[in-house]
Amino acid sequence: MRSVSVDKLTQQVDVMAIIGLGLIGGSIAKSSRLSGFAKHTIGYSLNFAEASLGVELGVVDEAARSIEQAVSNADVVIIAVPVKAFESVLADVKPYLKESAIITDVGSVKGCFLEAVKAVFGVLPSFVVPGHPIAGSEKNGVLAANENLFKNHKVILTPHEFSSENAVQLVRTMWEAAGSTVLEMTVEHHDEVLAATSHLPHLIAFSLVDTLAGEEDSQEIFRYAAGGFRDFTRIAASDPLMWHDIFLANQDALLKVLDHFSQDLNYLRKAIEDKDSQRLLGVFTRAKAAREHFTKILSGQSYTNTMNTNNVTFKMKSGGSVKGSIRVAGDKSISHRSIMLGALADGITEVEGFLEGEDSLATLQAFRDMGVVIEGPNQGKVKIYGVGLHGLKKPPGPIYLGNSGTGMRLFAGLLAGQKFDTDLVGDESLTKRPMERVAGPLRLMGAQIESAEGGRPPLKIKGGAPLKGIHYDMPMASAQVKSCILLAGMYAEGETLVSEPAPTRDHTERMLNGFGYPVERNGALAKIKGGGSLTAGKIDVPADISSAAFFMVAASITPDADITLEHVGLNPTRVGVINILKLMGADITISNKKEVGGEPVGDVRVKYAPLKGIHIPEDQVPLAIDEFPVLFIAAVCAEGETVLTGAEELRVKESDRIQVMADGLAQLGVRTDVRPDGIVIKGSRMKGGIVHSHSDHRIAMSFAVASLRAEGDIQIEDCANVATSFPNFVELAKEVGMNITVEGLN
Fold first, then answer.
1. Is the domain 334-540 a CATH 3.65.10.10 member?
2. Which of 3.20.20.70, 3.65.10.10, 3.90.1150.10, 3.30.70.360 is the CATH number of 313-327+544-743?
3. Catalytic, out of 191, 544, 603, 626
4. Which among 191, 590, 706, 721 could disulfide-bond with 697, CB atoms 3.0 to 4.6 Å apart, if both were Cys?
5. Phi–psi pair at 305, nearest 5 degrees
6. Is the CB of residue 598 less than 8 Å from the CB of residue 671?
């Protein structure tokens, strides 16, 4: 096996040869020279004057008059020539390669490069690693060489089955030294992806400019062309010969995606001809959402920060005040369900107060992927063109749900009754969440569901399985499990009954009834009959009581605090946090009570009052399950001992919230007694310190609240996921008087 020595400290090779000193080859040479990856660079071009100019410009150290001179001492050889020239250049290179040399390329089509390699060498040698930088410009030649061309761009390596690990690592090191992010994929996948994302757009740009140039009024067209036309057709200024070669080299993959595009273009033509407003809007809204999503991904963001690996840190100055009147983010549970039921309803559903957080946006995108036309969100307003219970279409790929356990469990119920197969996936956090609690009862109904080891995501749901109603006694109190079974019950033959051991939030039942699909409630029993339908309507999403809870506790523990939280959802199955705080002595009053869309709402005013420790009643635990992290902070600031039992569910949230909170409190000098189903917290003083949220948004925000009573500053690590449930938490915290700064945001 060939082996090139790479200095681990300097990441250098002795000699690099670049065959083809144009824009890409010249930029590689220049970046490798300046980064120190290559101690000596040699450039070769058919036009020796071009190579000599490269030396003059500082692009390469040496200009070679022959390929022999270029490669005979080279440790790594870069083939940077047009794709049609691969075979002839490799044939010229082969006789002069030293035994340890490694070859890579920069071509836009990888299949034809490997065909050329095999034609020349007879086999696929271990020292060959195909590569493709996703970067370029409309400029050509060595004069265009730019050492920063590849910075913050992606490079795709397509090692074949015989490529040595050493060779792959060397090529990876070269590109990382140039500032690139290196990915790997198969040759076949690369050529398919690039046909769609690069080759087709160039083909369309060339064709469109050529078409318009042939029009009688072409001068007027180009004279008055707007910026959008200029931006799109810019790529038609690229090298025609190069793109001619690429199109022919990637013929099969390009024709496949071109046929698909032609079909979709005809679909749009027919929609315009028929004046089909909804069809047009569907294409445009999906395209806009996809474009924004991809733009954010490419800039290191995402529509969900769950895909953002930045280490966001909250830095909290101790002390601060809590005063004012604010409206917190819309209720996440209701936002999820408004999209789900609106998509499956007959007619148009208009939503106001929609939570534009990561979890809710993931749900919205999932329905777009299944063919639902959705306008917005725009300042909390969303318009959903429902397709009916049986109108969803198979998504083009897996449905990505970020770290939303609610989303995955509710989707499992909805999708179990569809005709098509679906895969439900999420981020690393979600893969740790238990899903057997929904998969099990769905299988009892006849659903075909596969999960990963331990009943965890991803979930694979086989479509077309007939569902039958069941009577299910839930072993744990879980609104998500109950909702999943009720949603599946809409598609099941007969009646589905769910019995819960303790009251849980009933948003699903309320909203189903609001959409005209009857759900009967009789104590702990909920009953739904299959075969009904949903009717669209208007939904006003109240402020999320789980988000309001952080400010309720903040005001309760801060002397002289006085805050009003407007239009808070006061669903009886969600008010445990208020009930518990009142039992602890909190000063809480509610005004402007009313009902909006079947949900009770009101303004919640909280003023400072000394708190006392209590034994939290177990019947309140399901009513405050998401609010306990911040309630733990209230317990620390209370006089005496607070005891929580019956809260096993807290251990299987985004984190083990009992243990993670206990660990964080320990860092602040607070001793706790952790138990299997709860915790004991004695009121005590908190010092400053560094705590880790374990990617759990509620943990992060709870320790932010703790800073109000801490005796020193608190630094909270790994806070990127706060945006999953409360996108403007930081802004509101500052508004009411908390001393918070954020580091690590893009």
1. yes
2. 3.65.10.10
3. 626
4. 721
5. -65, -5
6. no
d(CA 202, CA 196): 10
* pLDDT on residue 221: 66
Give the span between the Cα atoms of 55 and 41, in whole angstroms. Answer: 10
Residue of 177, 172, 135 lying closest to 157 (CA atoms): 172
Question: CB atoms < 10 A from the CB of 401, how many?
Answer: 29
Average pLDDT (639-657) is 91
Report the alpha-carbon distance of residue 347 to residue 386 in Å, rounded. 5
CA–CA distance, 730 with 714 (Å, rounded to integer): 15
Helix 628-636, helix 697-706: angle, nearest 10: 20
On the question of a cis peptide bond just before residue 458, with omega within 30 degrees of 0, the verdict is yes
3-class DSSP state of 158: coil
> What residue spans define the domains of the chain?
13-185, 193-275, 313-327+544-743, 334-540
Question: Which pair of structure tokens corresponds to residue 130?
Answer: 């195909």
Phi, psi of 42 (to 5 degrees): -120, 130
Residue 116: enclosing H or E segment and its boundaries? helix 110-121
CA-nearest of 349, 359, 304 to 329 is 359
- Return the structure tokens found at 699: 């943990």
Rounded to whole angstroms, the Cα distance separating 62 from 230 reads 39
Contacts of 23 (CB under 8 A, 6+ apart): 136, 137, 139, 140, 141, 144, 145, 146, 149
CA distance 84 to 81: 8
Cα angle at 198 between 195 and 202, to 5 degrees? 105
Fold of 193-275: 6-phosphogluconate dehydrogenase C-terminal fold (1.10.3660)
| The pair of three-digit structure tokens given for residue 667, joined into one six-digit string | 């860092």
CA 23, CA 146: separation in Å to the nearest integer?
8
Q: Which of 418, 397, 396, 409 has its CA nearest to residue 456?
A: 409
CATH architecture of 13-185: 3-Layer(aba) Sandwich (3.40)
Nearest to 412 by CA among 361, 350, 368, 467: 467
Please report where in the chains the tokens 């019995």 appear, as a residue: 499
Q: Is 14 one of the annotated active-site residues of the chain?
A: no
User: Residue 221, Cβ neighbours under 10 Å: how many?
Assistant: 13
Average pLDDT over residues 167-194: 93
pLDDT at residue number 428: 80
What is the DSSP secondary structure assignment for residue 387, as one 8-state letter?
E
Residue 8, pLDDT > 70, answer no
Place of tokens 């749009």: 268
Question: Fold identical between 13-185 and 334-540?
Answer: no
| C-alpha distances out from residue 145 to 171, 425, 593, Å | 20, 42, 68
- Which burial class, exposed, middle or buried, applies to 571 when counting CB atoms under 10 A from its CB (0-12, 13-18, 19+)? buried
Mean pLDDT value across residues 702-715: 96
Confidence of residue 235 (pLDDT cuts 50, 70, 90): confident
Q: Distance between CA 631 and CA 699 in Å, rounded?
A: 11
Structure pTM?
Answer: 0.66
